[in-house]
Amino acid sequence: MNKRFLPLLGLLSMSLCSCVDTEFLYPQGAYLSGTFVDHVYNVWEGSTKQGYSNIKYAKTLSRGKNGYFAGNGPTDNPLECYGNLEAKQYHPDYFVNNAGEELHWGYYGGAYDGRPEDIINNGPGVYADNSPLYETVYSQNKRLDRFYPKFSRGYLSKLYNGQIKCNGWSYYAMMVLSSEGYGTMFPYELADATYFATSVLMGTDQEIDRRIVTSDIIVTFYKFASVGLEGYQVRLPGVDLSCNSAAARTSLVGFTFEDAGISPRGIVGMSITYGNLVDHAVTDASSDFASEGYHDGLCVYEILFPDSTWY
Known about the structure:
Helix content: under 10%
Number of helices: 4
Distance between the termini: 44 Å
Shape: globular
């Protein structure tokens, strides 16, 4: 298997905001291994794999106001392929706090001058109290572990803590998926939610400059059935994501449960898979990490069910 390092998360010369896996930036152990393919997360918890083969309902959403949102909107420029502006355009009421004040993608004045930050950054893996950001930063306001503490436990807790981009944390902040994806059971049962969103970009082990990679993303929710789990699947075709243009360029990708035609009540788990990958710079990239050669992998930073209630 090809064992290449992770240029996705930025070259040293680009910016300290990129997640360069090198001891020249952080002390040994702060960045974990730099081998991309070794960090693929492909665990399917509980009966989620069985549920994935027991799909009760499936719908494909097109990109648009009554479909799915992704990043700042359609673009052919990888430097513009990030953010949350498309979601704000379609659903402006999702981005205000209880006082009606705007919630931002990030704040200015963080460790990386001139770039909006989503966390108070004390360094990779070091705890910081982010409560001062709760009323101003979207992800900190909506993070799952803020209201439901069981989401703060375990390996996947990093997907529920409000950190929507790298901030130099590398694999402490995100997980890499092959097209096989992952499945997880939640520590609670969902009672109500308006929409689902995730903060993602595309990773690579190819030493090729910034570009856009397009892929279908498949989100499957699981509910208990008479035997095991049954799946409710939403396919998002042709999602454009930034690749190799610095790990600050994550995109908020999501949809409403109403547009998906799914009742959120009773959801106990979920999975993310992806396919039909098109790398617009490389013809032989693969999302199958068991194969030789170059690989592109979906990097997931945050899972959000904003303003949801759980049993």
